[in-house]
Design a protein that fits this description.
Elements lengths: L1 H18 L19 E2 L11 E9 L2 E9 L3 E3 L20 E6 L2 E2 L6 E7 L2 H14 L9 E12 L14 E9 L3 E7 L9 E2 L11 E2 L1 E5 L2 E4 L3 E4 L2 E3 L4 H9 L8 E8 L7 E2 L148 H4 L7 E6 L2 E6 L3 E3 L4 E3 L4 E13 L2 E15 L4 E6 L4 H6 L5 H9 L2 E2 L6 H5 L2 E11 L4 E11 L5 E11 L7 E4 L2 E8 L2 E14 L3 E15 L12 E14 L4 E11 L13 H4 L8 E5 L5 E5 L3 E3 L4 E3 L14 E6 L2 E6 L3 E3 L6 E3 L12 E6 L2 E6 L3 E3 L4 E3 L7 H8 L26 E3 L6 E3 L34 H12 L22 E3 L5 E4 L12 E2 L31 E5 L3 E8 L2 E2 L5 E5 L5 E7 L4 E6 L4 E6 L7 E5 L3 H7 L13 E7 L6 E6 L6 E6 L6 E4 L6 E7 L4 E6 L5 E4 L7 E4 L5 E7 ...
Parallel strand pairs: 23-29, 26-35
Antiparallel strand pairs: 1-7, 2-3, 3-4, 5-13, 6-8, 7-8, 8-9, 9-10, 10-17, 11-12, 13-16, 14-15, 17-18, 19-20, 21-22, 23-24, 24-25, 25-35, 27-28, 27-33, 28-29, 30-32, 31-32, 31-34, 32-33, 34-35, 36-37, 38-39, 40-41, 42-43, 44-45, 46-47, 48-49, 50-51, 51-52, 53-54, 53-73, 54-55, 54-56, 57-58, ...
Main location: secreted
InterPro entries: 6-blade_b-propeller_TolB-like, Dev_reg/Prot_inhib, EGF, EGF-like_Ca-bd_dom, EGF-type_Asp/Asn_hydroxyl_site, EGF_Ca-bd_CS, G2_nidogen/fibulin_G2F, GFP
Keywords: Basement membrane, Calcium, Cell adhesion, Disulfide bond, EGF-like domain, Extracellular matrix, Glycoprotein, Repeat, Secreted, Signal
């Protein structure tokens, strides 16, 4: 019986031991020490670190702070600390902000330990903190961007020598980690199991009374402002109250492991007090710190243990002290297990996701080394995958992409929530977009975009509006054995959401890699998926992932087996509502010969959707065509994961699978500009969904609708649809214009702010000395004194919008530089003033400006020139402050008032608009006229009465162009006369010759483009820029086949120019003129006697018959017509007067000897004989044609709705082809070049 009882007791003890959790060991804390980039605090009894300016501000309670200080006495503060006697022996709360992992009278004098601190953005550290926060706060979905680590290593207590024969030798080790993103801050306190050997300190002034004050642990906001002139005690939170509660710091924990304590300590929107984690209460549990809970999702960080940072072993794990395990190796797709069965086994020595290696405990410090620094880290692996999630997709053990076709066991953890820490809309509504509603569910809250917007609720964009993406591209690639580096070059993308077109341009790409990256269209393909045209019951990428995601794509080329990795990280929306995406590319790509073209066929991709993750796998084929090697076929396999922040509290809306159909892919590298371009047309819908023929599909789904690019297409029955301008735009949907919320009083910007209009939106910009508050509209004063801008012997006084520095008594100076009174030194103003007297101390030169100095030798804030009477304000260096100069006879500025940020002077258009708004009493009627100005202040070429269709054209000075007034749905075809802003760097302004054969030339504002024809098909891959003309508005264009020259008109410079089509030829100006409308005619009719033309738009010449005839369209809106005459102007007659509206385009068909025109008002393409007979309709459903040419039985016309070139067969009256240039802007003039002169040119 005794033996049996003994065995039972032994088994019980063993079971208890196996079920317990070891506390945090010294080797398990976050790495620290100088080898890890830490700064060390000066040793002493009452030391404070120098100010540490954070890379981005951190929220503590409800306030934002940029500075941190570390103090000897176990605390971190957001402001410089007072002397220790003012706080070290007092309880909570303190008078100043405090984060206290162990507030006591500590001392590091005489080598009694070290104190280290640093800020970091290490992915391994951020990953580890994110894992702990998301398991301690299940609804947090926290993805930190920055962290701050402070470690007190073997520090002692202050001990008076008179009380002890010698120091006690007791030492404490503890650590505080602060991690934060743009809205939230969390704190981790770590106390190793042997780290606390004393639990309080004696007061210095205890008068030999043997008392000991327990250490204070917790958080204090400090004093906060109350009403205007008073302050009151702020909120605080205490963890300890007596000695036993201090001992609990390493015996218990609230994060699942003894010695680990986790708290939510700040939020940018609303925060009453600190919230402790509830993952493990105060009792030890079997959950391991550092291991993921089944419901944890940390999408921005790796899902494998980081070899730099240890995990805490279980009590059952044997401790071994050996070599550090190797880093996870890149695993090929062929090595990934493809059959269900036991869990994946990671490479030897590496723990897999959610696992812990029982063969070794990693990165433990040797037992005897209690003061040594944490081991130097091995290189971190920078890859982006989510942690295991409920029903998560498969991942390989090393975190690489796994195909959706592979069968892998899924985790299915049970999520448990506590009503005490459930996040609700009342507390966290601010995490939703301003254009979203917040909804509470039983387990938490979710954000949902309002009607008229799309997105994931955290980010919402207006339906129908075009979108822009900005970012940087970096990485190193091997091209034919040669490494080529991209160092943060610019990426810009423009997406027309209404028809799914995505244009991507990457600048400053060196030539070898520029050609080689042409096949890698998935770089720009991400933006196609994000903003794809949505078919019914489908969601594009932005509607699922919003603007916070990471996309990892792996590409394997065949037959060369080159491998390329692409990581694209979305970092939210800019103030202009542009998506910010950074791209990192690493690996090798096949060599592509210079001047080669890449041909890619349309393809389809199937996307699988899981909570927080989207996966896809596909195979792409392309051909490389070059003069050297001919045509070569290559393929690559693409596998990708897109991880994002998902809200699981609401029922899932996205389908499990969707199909992305890519209808067109174009890639080109422009050697002269060093720009790599991708153009992709995308739509997304159910798997297997195919659109019916053009006559059956709704135009909203085919992209053939006539809605403006800033409008949403709303499908109806059959082919019916409606156009609705996006939020922030006005108009009828077919023609939309930006609403200036600032000018029309629709903004919500507060005081001390300036409203800046944006396309489709606006933003509030604060005056100097202010910053935006959490609501994004109001401006709050910046307390510059928190950053200690003044000299060490000066005091700082914060003022509204500014601050003042004053030297302390006994010192003189400007507050930024203070000097002792004894042995006074010359200061800048005195030196400036006295230097004007010359080397002999003579009088100042007559008429010279002499600075005025104060009694301390500093520049007076107000300076005046005695000879001219001008006055201005200066800074401490005597430099004039912009915007403060006043002319003679006017009162000078008050230099103590903040200066409103300088802005460009108001233009004539803007002043006129503001005057009329004031005249209308601030609330103009929709039917009243207000000048419409563009973002640079110029008049928009088309002006309208309010939101009506009563419109007309104006020149650059706002003067109406006669004959352009209209009162129908189609606005007049007004041409800009002011050049857009120049975008640098500029390509060379010389000619790049087009390919041989027949080429369509087109004018597109600041450039002339060339589009070769292969038969009658447009050869899009060989399209190029013939001539870049920045600062111009090129409209009229023609080609002289005999001299091989191109001629054009520039409406901005009011010039006619020409250039030879030889390589390197430069433009020459032929004519400068102020008569713009005569310009269209004089380019073709050298001595024209027609002087009563109004709005001439199209000109055609019939030179196929013996007598040359001249035809032109006059779209004077009161009486549009088409006329003809001889080239000398004789025998003038009207051919067409009835049934036309806006006949822009005109060409001559030499095979049928008919004149043809395209009308943007009637939407028809018609032809008629020169004698006025035989009128017939070729097509009756055009969009907005502008210019047209006839060639080889086909009409080619530029379309302002599509901003492209459309071809149409004369025989079948069907559209045959379409070309959409990479640059998004209107196309104007449109001739054709050929080996022989082509008739019917415009």
């Amino acid at each position: 019986g005794v033996t049996h009882s003994a065995r039972a007791l032994a088994w019980l003890l063993l079971l208890l031991r196996l079920c317990s959790v070891a506390a945090v060991r010294r080797g398990d804390v976050f790495p620290y020490g100088t080898l890890h980039g830490d700064a060390a605090l000066q040793e002493g009894d009452d030391e404070t670190s120098k100010v540490l300016v954070l890379t981005k501000p951190m929220y503590f309670y409800e306030a934002s702070f940029r500075n941190l200080y570390v103090a000897t006495n176990g605390i971190i503060s957001t402001q410089d600390l007072p002397m220790e006697k003012q706080y070290v022996d007092d309880g909570f709360p303190t008078d100043f902000p405090v984060i206290a992992p162990f507030l006591a009278d500590l001392d590091t004098s005489g080598g009694q330990g070290e104190i280290y601190y640093r800020q970091t953005e290490s992915p391994g550290i951020l990953n580890r903190v994110a894992s702990e926060v998301n398991q301690g706060f299940p609804d947090a979905r926290f993805n930190p961007t920055h962290a701050f680590i402070a470690t007190w290593d073997n520090v002692g207590a202050y001990e008076e020598a008179s009380r002890h024969a010698g120091p006690s030798g007791k030492r404490n080790t503890f650590q505080a980690v602060l991690a934060y993103d743009e809205t939230d801050t969390y704190a981790l306190f770590l106390y190793p199991e042997d780290g606390l050997n004393f639990f309080g300190t004696r007061p210095k002034e205890s008068y030999n009374v043997e008392i000991e004050l327990p250490a204070r642990v917790g958080f204090s906001r400090g004093e906060v402002s109350f009403f205007i002139f008073s302050r009151q005690e702020g909120p605080h939170y205490s963890v300890t109250s007596n000695e036993q509660s201090v001992k609990n710091l390493y015996q218990k924990g609230n994060a699942g492991v003894p010695g680990v304590w986790l708290f939510h300590i700040g939020n940018s929107f609303s925060f009453d007090n600190v919230i402790p984690a509830a993952a493990g209460s105060l009792l030890p549990t079997v959950h391991l710190f550092g291991h993921e809970a089944p419901n944890t999702t940390t999408p921005d960080y790796p899902d494998y243990p980081d070899p730099d940072y240890p995990e805490f072993p279980t009590a059952a794990s044997p401790e071994t002290h050996g070599q550090h395990p190797g880093l996870p190796q890149v695993q090929s797709y062929e090595d990934v297990p493809r059959t269900p069965g036991p869990p994946h086994h990671p490479p030897e020595g590496v723990a897999g996701p959610g696992e812990h290696s029982l063969s070794e405990t990693r990165r433990l410090r040797p037992d005897g080394d209690v003061r040594g620094q944490s081991p130097e880290p091995e290189p971190a692996i920078l890859e982006a995958y989510p942690h295991r999630v409920e029903s998560s997709p498969p991942h390989a053990p090393d975190g690489h992409v796994v195909s959706v076709e592979e069968e892998v066991d899924f985790d299915s953890g049970v999520i448990q929530y506590s009503t005490d820490n459930r996040e609700t809309c009342q507390r966290f509504r601010q995490q939703c977009s301003h254009n979203a509603d917040c909804a509470d569910y039983s387990t938490g809250f979710c954000c949902h975009c309002r009607a008229g917007f799309f997105g994931n609720g955290r980010h919402c964009l207006p339906n129908g509006a075009p979108q822009r993406v900005n970012g940087k591209v970096s990485g190193t690639m091997m091209v034919g054995g040669t490494p080529v580096e991209l160092n943060a070059v610019d990426l810009h993308a423009y997406i027309v959401v209404g028809d799914g077109r995505a244009y991507t341009a990457i600048s400053e790409v060196p030539e070898p890699v520029g050609w080689a990256l042409m096949p890698v269209a998935p770089i720009g393909g991400l933006f196609g998926w994000l903003f794809a045209l949505q078919l019914p019951n489908s969601h594009n990428g932005f509607a699922v992932a919003g603007a916070d995601f990471t996309r990892h794509a792996d590409i394997i080329f065949h037959p060369g087996n080159q491998r390329l990795s692409i990581v694209q990280t979305a970092k939210g929306m800019s103030p202009e509502n542009y998506l910010s995406v950074d791209t990192h590319i690493q690996g090798s790509v096949p060599f592509v010969p210079p001047d080669a073209t890449v041909e890619m066929e349309p393809f389809k991709e199937v996307y699988q959707y899981y909570p927080s993750v989207v996966t896809s796998t596909s195979v792409h084929e392309f051909r490389v065509v070059s003069a050297e090697s001919g045509a070569q076929s290559i393929s690559y396999q693409l596998r990708q994961n897109i991880t994002y922040r998902d809200c699981r509290h609401a029922p899932r809306a996205a389908p499990e699978t969707q199909q992305l159909t890519v209808e067109r892919v174009l890639a080109m590298y422009v050697r002269e500009e060093r720009i790599l371009r991708y153009a992709i047309t995308n739509r997304i819908g159910p798997v297997g969904a195919e659109l019916p023929g053009p006559e059956l599909v709704n135009p909203c789904y085919s992209g053939s609708h006539e809605c403006d690019t800033t409008a949403q297409c709303l499908p109806g029955e059959g082919q019916a649809y409606q156009c609705q301008c996006a939020t922030g735009y006005g108009g009828d949907g077919r023609n939309c214009y930006d609403v200036d919320e600032c000018a029309e009083g629709l903004s919500s910007c507060g005081s001390h702010s300036e409203c800046e209009n944006l396309q489709g939106s606006y933003r509030c910009r604060c005056e100097a000395g202010y910053e935006l508050g959490s609501d994004g509209h109001s401006c709050v004063d910046v307390d510059e004194c928190l950053s200690h801008p003044c000299h060490g012997h000066a005091t700082c006084a914060n003022t509204r919008g500014s601050f003042e520095c004053h030297c302390q008594p006994g010192y003189y100076g400007n507050g930024f530089q203070c000097h002792p009174r004894n042995g006074k030194l010359f200061v800048p103003c005195e030196h400036h003033r006295d230097s004007l007297q010359g080397s002999h101390g003579g009088p100042h030169p007559v008429g010279a400006f002499v600075p005025q100095c104060d009694e301390e030798g500093q520049y007076r804030p107000l300076q005046c020139h005695g000879s001219t009477g001008h006055c201005w304000c200066v800074d401490s260096r005597g430099q004039e402050r912009a915007g403060t100069r006043t002319p003679p006879g006017t009162p000078p500025r008050n230099c103590n008032e903040p200066v409103t940020p300088t802005r460009r002077p108001e233009s004539v258009c803007e002043r006129w608009r503001a005057s009329l708004i004031e005249h209308y009493g601030g609330q103009p009627d929709p039917r009243q006229y207000l000048p419409q100005c563009d973002t640079t202040g110029h008049f928009n070429p088309v002006q309208c009465y309010g939101d009506s269709s009563y419109c007309w054209c104006v020149d650059k000075d706002g003067r109406e162009i006669p004959g352009t007034r209209s009162h129908d749905a189609v606005k007049p075809a007004c041409l800009p006369t002011a050049a857009p802003h120049t975008v640098r760097p500029l390509p060379r302004p010389d000619v790049t010759p087009p390919p041989s054969g027949t080429v369509l030339l087109y004018a597109q504002g600041q450039q002339i483009g060339a589009l070769p024809l292969n038969g009658t098909r447009m050869d899009k891959e060989r399209s190029s820029v013939l001539l870049a003309l920045h600062g111009s508005v090129v409209v009229g264009i023609d080609y002289d086949c005999r001299e091989n020259r191109v001629y054009w008109t520039d409406l901005s410079g009011r010039t006619i120019s020409r250039a030879s089509l030889e390589k390197g030829a430069e433009a020459e100006v032929l004519i400068n003129t102020a008569r713009l409308h005569d310009l269209h005619i004089s380019i073709l009719v050298h001595s024209c006697c027609l002087t009563d033309l109004n709005s001439v738009e199209g000109i055609a010449v019939d030179e196929a018959r013996r007598r040359i005839m001249l035809f032109w369209t006059d779209w004077n809106r009161e009486s549009p017509k088409i006329e003809r005459s001889t080239v000398e102007g004789h025998n003038r007659r009207v051919l067409v007067r009835e049934g036309i509206g806006l006949p822009n385009a005109l060409t001559y068909d030499p095979t049928t000897h008919q004149l043809c025109w395209a009308d943007a008002g009637t939407k028809r393409l018609e032809c008629i004989s020169p004698d006025g007979t035989g009128r017939r309709v070729i097509h009756s459903n055009l969009n907005y044609p502008f210019s047209m040419v006839f060639y080889a039985n086909h009409f080619y016309y530029t379309d302002w709705r599509r901003d492209g070139i459309i071809s149409l067969s004369r025989s079948t009256s069907q559209f045959t082809d379409e070309y959409l240039p990479d640059q998004r802007s209107h196309l104007y003039g449109f001739p054709a070049t050929a080996p022989l002169s082509v008739t019917g040119r415009r």
